[in-house]
Specification:
Number of strands: 2
Structural class: mainly alpha
Largest sheet: 2 strands, antiparallel
Number of domains: 2
Distance between the termini: 50 Å
Radius of gyration: 21 Å
Order of helices and strands: HHHHHHEEHHHH
Strand order of the largest sheet: 1-2
Helix content: over 70%
Oligomer: single chain
Length: about 280
Protein backbone atom coordinates (compact mmCIF):
# COMPACT_ATOMS: atom_id res chain seq x y z
CA UNK A 1 0.00 0.00 0.00
CA UNK A 2 1.42 3.40 -1.01
CA UNK A 3 1.31 6.63 0.96
CA UNK A 4 -1.38 7.99 -1.37
CA UNK A 5 -3.56 4.91 -0.70
CA UNK A 6 -3.57 5.73 3.02
CA UNK A 7 -4.92 9.23 2.36
CA UNK A 8 -8.70 9.82 2.45
CA UNK A 9 -10.43 9.32 -0.87
CA UNK A 10 -11.49 12.97 -1.10
CA UNK A 11 -7.87 14.10 -0.58
CA UNK A 12 -6.71 11.85 -3.41
CA UNK A 13 -9.53 13.22 -5.56
CA UNK A 14 -8.48 16.78 -4.66
CA UNK A 15 -4.90 16.00 -5.71
CA UNK A 16 -6.02 14.80 -9.14
CA UNK A 17 -8.36 17.78 -9.41
CA UNK A 18 -5.38 20.08 -8.84
CA UNK A 19 -3.43 18.23 -11.53
CA UNK A 20 -6.34 18.75 -13.93
CA UNK A 21 -6.55 22.43 -12.97
CA UNK A 22 -2.84 22.96 -13.60
CA UNK A 23 -3.12 21.26 -17.00
CA UNK A 24 -6.27 23.22 -17.85
CA UNK A 25 -4.59 26.49 -16.88
CA UNK A 26 -1.69 25.89 -19.26
CA UNK A 27 -3.98 24.54 -21.98
CA UNK A 28 -6.42 27.46 -21.92
CA UNK A 29 -3.61 30.02 -21.92
CA UNK A 30 -1.93 28.40 -24.93
CA UNK A 31 -5.30 28.10 -26.66
CA UNK A 32 -5.99 31.78 -26.14
CA UNK A 33 -2.55 32.67 -27.46
CA UNK A 34 -3.17 30.54 -30.54
CA UNK A 35 -6.53 32.19 -31.30
CA UNK A 36 -5.40 35.75 -30.50
CA UNK A 37 -5.74 38.04 -33.54
CA UNK A 38 -2.34 39.63 -32.80
CA UNK A 39 0.68 38.23 -30.97
CA UNK A 40 2.25 41.36 -29.60
CA UNK A 41 4.77 41.91 -26.84
CA UNK A 42 2.10 42.55 -24.20
CA UNK A 43 0.22 39.33 -24.94
CA UNK A 44 3.46 37.35 -24.81
CA UNK A 45 4.34 38.77 -21.38
CA UNK A 46 0.84 38.17 -20.00
CA UNK A 47 0.78 34.61 -21.36
CA UNK A 48 4.23 33.86 -19.96
CA UNK A 49 3.22 35.14 -16.53
CA UNK A 50 0.00 33.12 -16.66
CA UNK A 51 1.96 29.97 -17.54
CA UNK A 52 4.21 30.53 -14.52
CA UNK A 53 1.05 30.30 -12.44
CA UNK A 54 0.97 26.61 -13.36
CA UNK A 55 3.99 26.17 -11.08
CA UNK A 56 1.86 27.56 -8.27
CA UNK A 57 -0.63 24.73 -8.75
CA UNK A 58 2.20 22.20 -8.60
CA UNK A 59 3.37 23.76 -5.31
CA UNK A 60 -0.20 23.53 -4.01
CA UNK A 61 -0.29 19.83 -4.92
CA UNK A 62 2.90 19.35 -2.88
CA UNK A 63 1.30 21.07 0.14
CA UNK A 64 -1.93 19.04 -0.13
CA UNK A 65 -0.09 15.72 -0.43
CA UNK A 66 1.80 16.54 2.78
CA UNK A 67 -1.27 17.85 4.60
CA UNK A 68 0.14 21.35 5.08
CA UNK A 69 -2.11 23.90 6.78
CA UNK A 70 -0.91 26.58 4.36
CA UNK A 71 -2.56 24.83 1.41
CA UNK A 72 -5.90 26.59 1.88
CA UNK A 73 -4.77 30.23 1.54
CA UNK A 74 -2.44 29.27 -1.31
CA UNK A 75 -5.30 27.55 -3.10
CA UNK A 76 -7.64 30.49 -2.57
CA UNK A 77 -5.31 33.16 -3.95
CA UNK A 78 -4.28 30.86 -6.83
CA UNK A 79 -7.91 30.27 -7.79
CA UNK A 80 -8.86 33.96 -7.65
CA UNK A 81 -5.84 35.27 -9.52
CA UNK A 82 -5.94 32.45 -12.09
CA UNK A 83 -9.52 33.29 -13.02
CA UNK A 84 -8.61 36.95 -13.50
CA UNK A 85 -5.30 36.21 -15.26
CA UNK A 86 -6.88 33.84 -17.78
CA UNK A 87 -10.01 35.96 -18.13
CA UNK A 88 -7.99 38.95 -19.29
CA UNK A 89 -6.32 36.82 -21.98
CA UNK A 90 -9.51 35.66 -23.71
CA UNK A 91 -10.88 39.19 -24.20
CA UNK A 92 -9.43 40.73 -27.39
CA UNK A 93 -8.93 44.45 -27.90
CA UNK A 94 -11.87 44.45 -30.30
CA UNK A 95 -14.60 42.02 -31.24
CA UNK A 96 -15.76 38.96 -29.35
CA UNK A 97 -13.53 36.30 -27.79
CA UNK A 98 -13.20 32.96 -29.65
CA UNK A 99 -15.61 30.24 -28.59
CA UNK A 100 -12.89 27.66 -27.66
CA UNK A 101 -11.31 30.22 -25.34
CA UNK A 102 -14.64 31.00 -23.67
CA UNK A 103 -15.42 27.30 -23.16
CA UNK A 104 -11.94 26.68 -21.77
CA UNK A 105 -12.25 29.64 -19.41
CA UNK A 106 -15.65 28.40 -18.20
CA UNK A 107 -14.23 24.93 -17.50
CA UNK A 108 -11.23 26.41 -15.69
CA UNK A 109 -13.51 28.61 -13.56
CA UNK A 110 -15.52 25.56 -12.50
CA UNK A 111 -12.31 23.72 -11.58
CA UNK A 112 -11.00 26.66 -9.52
CA UNK A 113 -14.27 27.11 -7.65
CA UNK A 114 -14.44 23.37 -6.93
CA UNK A 115 -10.91 23.47 -5.51
CA UNK A 116 -11.82 26.36 -3.18
CA UNK A 117 -14.99 24.62 -1.98
CA UNK A 118 -13.10 21.42 -1.18
CA UNK A 119 -10.28 23.27 0.60
CA UNK A 120 -12.55 25.40 2.77
CA UNK A 121 -15.81 23.46 3.11
CA UNK A 122 -15.02 19.73 3.13
CA UNK A 123 -14.49 18.49 6.66
CA UNK A 124 -12.19 15.60 5.69
CA UNK A 125 -9.91 17.94 3.74
CA UNK A 126 -9.80 20.39 6.65
CA UNK A 127 -8.85 17.57 9.04
CA UNK A 128 -6.09 16.49 6.64
CA UNK A 129 -4.55 19.95 6.19
CA UNK A 130 -3.24 20.44 9.73
CA UNK A 131 0.50 19.86 9.46
CA UNK A 132 3.16 22.55 9.61
CA UNK A 133 6.66 22.72 8.08
CA UNK A 134 9.41 20.89 9.93
CA UNK A 135 12.24 22.86 11.48
CA UNK A 136 15.57 22.00 13.02
CA UNK A 137 15.18 22.02 16.82
CA UNK A 138 17.52 21.31 19.70
CA UNK A 139 16.54 18.30 21.87
CA UNK A 140 18.20 16.23 24.59
CA UNK A 141 19.50 13.91 21.89
CA UNK A 142 20.88 16.75 19.78
CA UNK A 143 19.50 18.34 16.63
CA UNK A 144 16.29 16.91 15.22
CA UNK A 145 13.80 17.80 12.50
CA UNK A 146 10.36 18.30 14.05
CA UNK A 147 7.06 19.76 13.01
CA UNK A 148 7.05 23.39 14.14
CA UNK A 149 3.57 24.20 15.43
CA UNK A 150 3.23 28.00 15.41
CA UNK A 151 2.57 29.74 18.70
CA UNK A 152 -0.48 31.60 17.45
CA UNK A 153 -4.26 31.03 17.49
CA UNK A 154 -5.73 28.50 15.03
CA UNK A 155 -7.87 31.13 13.29
CA UNK A 156 -4.72 32.96 12.26
CA UNK A 157 -5.41 31.19 8.96
CA UNK A 158 -7.02 34.47 7.88
CA UNK A 159 -3.76 36.25 8.66
CA UNK A 160 -1.96 33.64 6.57
CA UNK A 161 -4.44 34.24 3.74
CA UNK A 162 -3.73 37.98 3.91
CA UNK A 163 -0.01 37.26 3.86
CA UNK A 164 -0.15 34.99 0.82
CA UNK A 165 -2.43 37.39 -1.07
CA UNK A 166 -0.22 40.39 -0.26
CA UNK A 167 2.84 38.59 -1.66
CA UNK A 168 1.15 38.70 -5.08
CA UNK A 169 1.29 42.51 -5.11
CA UNK A 170 4.86 42.64 -6.39
CA UNK A 171 4.46 40.32 -9.42
CA UNK A 172 1.09 41.87 -10.26
CA UNK A 173 2.83 45.26 -10.41
CA UNK A 174 5.93 44.06 -12.25
CA UNK A 175 4.03 42.31 -15.07
CA UNK A 176 2.33 45.50 -16.39
CA UNK A 177 5.55 47.42 -15.74
CA UNK A 178 7.37 44.94 -17.98
CA UNK A 179 4.65 45.27 -20.62
CA UNK A 180 4.96 49.06 -20.51
CA UNK A 181 8.63 48.75 -21.55
CA UNK A 182 7.33 47.94 -25.02
CA UNK A 183 5.54 51.33 -25.08
CA UNK A 184 8.72 53.33 -24.52
CA UNK A 185 9.67 53.11 -28.20
CA UNK A 186 6.89 55.51 -29.13
CA UNK A 187 6.57 57.30 -25.76
CA UNK A 188 10.10 57.68 -24.34
CA UNK A 189 8.96 60.50 -22.05
CA UNK A 190 7.52 57.85 -19.71
CA UNK A 191 10.92 56.28 -19.02
CA UNK A 192 11.13 57.66 -15.47
CA UNK A 193 7.57 56.53 -14.73
CA UNK A 194 8.36 53.00 -15.88
CA UNK A 195 11.54 52.99 -13.80
CA UNK A 196 9.58 54.15 -10.75
CA UNK A 197 7.06 51.38 -11.43
CA UNK A 198 9.77 48.73 -11.29
CA UNK A 199 11.30 50.21 -8.13
CA UNK A 200 7.88 50.35 -6.44
CA UNK A 201 7.15 46.75 -7.44
CA UNK A 202 10.37 45.44 -5.91
CA UNK A 203 10.04 47.67 -2.82
CA UNK A 204 6.54 46.37 -2.13
CA UNK A 205 7.83 42.80 -1.91
CA UNK A 206 10.24 43.71 0.90
CA UNK A 207 7.66 45.87 2.68
CA UNK A 208 5.06 43.11 2.57
CA UNK A 209 7.57 40.53 3.82
CA UNK A 210 8.52 42.70 6.81
CA UNK A 211 4.95 43.71 7.67
CA UNK A 212 3.48 40.22 7.47
CA UNK A 213 6.10 38.85 9.86
CA UNK A 214 4.57 41.00 12.59
CA UNK A 215 1.06 40.36 11.25
CA UNK A 216 1.48 36.64 11.91
CA UNK A 217 2.54 37.52 15.47
CA UNK A 218 -0.73 39.32 16.07
CA UNK A 219 0.53 42.89 16.06
CA UNK A 220 -2.39 45.27 15.57
CA UNK A 221 -0.18 47.93 13.98
CA UNK A 222 0.89 45.43 11.32
CA UNK A 223 -2.73 45.08 10.18
CA UNK A 224 -3.01 48.84 9.82
CA UNK A 225 0.34 48.97 8.05
CA UNK A 226 -0.71 46.31 5.54
CA UNK A 227 -3.90 48.26 4.83
CA UNK A 228 -1.83 51.35 4.02
CA UNK A 229 0.50 49.25 1.85
CA UNK A 230 -2.52 47.89 -0.02
CA UNK A 231 -3.94 51.36 -0.62
CA UNK A 232 -0.51 52.62 -1.72
CA UNK A 233 -0.15 49.76 -4.20
CA UNK A 234 -3.53 50.58 -5.74
CA UNK A 235 -2.76 54.32 -5.89
CA UNK A 236 0.53 53.67 -7.70
CA UNK A 237 -0.38 50.77 -9.98
CA UNK A 238 -3.85 51.62 -11.29
CA UNK A 239 -3.04 55.14 -12.61
CA UNK A 240 0.17 53.86 -14.24
CA UNK A 241 -1.78 51.03 -15.88
CA UNK A 242 -4.19 53.55 -17.35
CA UNK A 243 -1.59 56.13 -18.40
CA UNK A 244 0.85 53.68 -19.99
CA UNK A 245 -1.39 50.82 -21.13
CA UNK A 246 -4.74 52.54 -21.55
CA UNK A 247 -8.18 51.37 -20.46
CA UNK A 248 -7.43 47.90 -21.84
CA UNK A 249 -4.36 47.59 -19.62
CA UNK A 250 -6.28 48.94 -16.64
CA UNK A 251 -8.83 46.14 -16.98
CA UNK A 252 -6.40 43.36 -17.88
CA UNK A 253 -3.64 44.19 -15.38
CA UNK A 254 -5.43 46.29 -12.77
CA UNK A 255 -8.34 43.91 -12.12
CA UNK A 256 -6.19 41.02 -10.76
CA UNK A 257 -4.44 43.43 -8.39
CA UNK A 258 -7.77 44.81 -7.18
CA UNK A 259 -8.98 41.23 -6.58
CA UNK A 260 -5.86 40.45 -4.50
CA UNK A 261 -6.27 43.72 -2.57
CA UNK A 262 -9.92 42.96 -1.78
CA UNK A 263 -8.92 39.51 -0.51
CA UNK A 264 -6.21 41.04 1.70
CA UNK A 265 -8.58 43.65 3.15
CA UNK A 266 -11.30 41.07 3.79
CA UNK A 267 -8.82 38.74 5.49
CA UNK A 268 -7.55 41.58 7.69
CA UNK A 269 -11.14 42.43 8.58
CA UNK A 270 -11.73 38.82 9.65
CA UNK A 271 -8.54 38.90 11.74
CA UNK A 272 -9.66 42.13 13.44
CA UNK A 273 -12.93 40.46 14.49
CA UNK A 274 -11.16 37.70 16.40
CA UNK A 275 -12.11 37.64 20.10
CA UNK A 276 -9.51 39.13 22.40
CA UNK A 277 -8.87 35.75 23.97
CA UNK A 278 -7.65 34.33 20.66
CA UNK A 279 -5.12 37.08 20.04
CA UNK A 280 -1.54 36.18 20.99
CA UNK A 281 -0.19 37.76 24.10
CA UNK A 282 2.43 39.50 22.00
CA UNK A 283 -0.29 41.46 20.28
CA UNK A 284 -1.19 43.24 23.47
CA UNK A 285 2.37 44.05 24.40
Amino acid sequence: MTVDDRKPRVVRALTWLLVATAAATAGVELLNFWYAPEHGYGLAVRTGWALLRTLGWLILIWHVRRGRAGARPIGLILAVTTIFAVGRLIVPRSGTPPLPGVLGFAALTVLCLTVVVLLYRHRTVQEHLVRHPKKLVVTRDGLEWREAVPKRPPLAAWALTARVAAFTYSPLMLVPALISVGELGRRPQWLLAVGFWFVAGFAVSYLVALTTIFLMRGKAWARRMLIWVTLGVLVVDLPLCYLLLGADGLVRDGAPLVAAAVLVLYSLWRVSRLPAASVPAAATA
